[in-house]
Cell division protein
Amino acid sequence: MFDLSRSIDLHKISTRQTNEEAIAGKMSGLIGINESVTWRAKHFGIYQKLTSKITEYDRPNYFADEMVKGAFAEFKHEHHFAESNRGTLMTDFFDYKSPFGILGKLADKLFLKKYMTELLTERNRIVKDFAESNKWKEVIK
């Protein structure tokens, strides 16, 4: 789960609905500490670029990526992993601030929080699917 969550190749697969592609930095394989990737993706009908960097890393328990450049005022995405009697428990924390002050806060309430939750839920569903099948061999070499 830890390696699947930091796989650039699986990220591309899990975000097909936004046409996400790595265009700079680490563009395939497993991203690690102090490495960055720039993504180009279509959200709300507009192509956007976002660069994030792995800023914290404690294999196999935790890593965090933070936006270096992009549409948000800021964001930090924490990925936590713990063994459980049923396998691995993966918990994500996605803390972000929208741009545009009060308008950004209004956008959060109206649609952005729901959109981001659904995006991360779908991504994690696909990570889980790869982990629980032989599909993981396609992206972890």
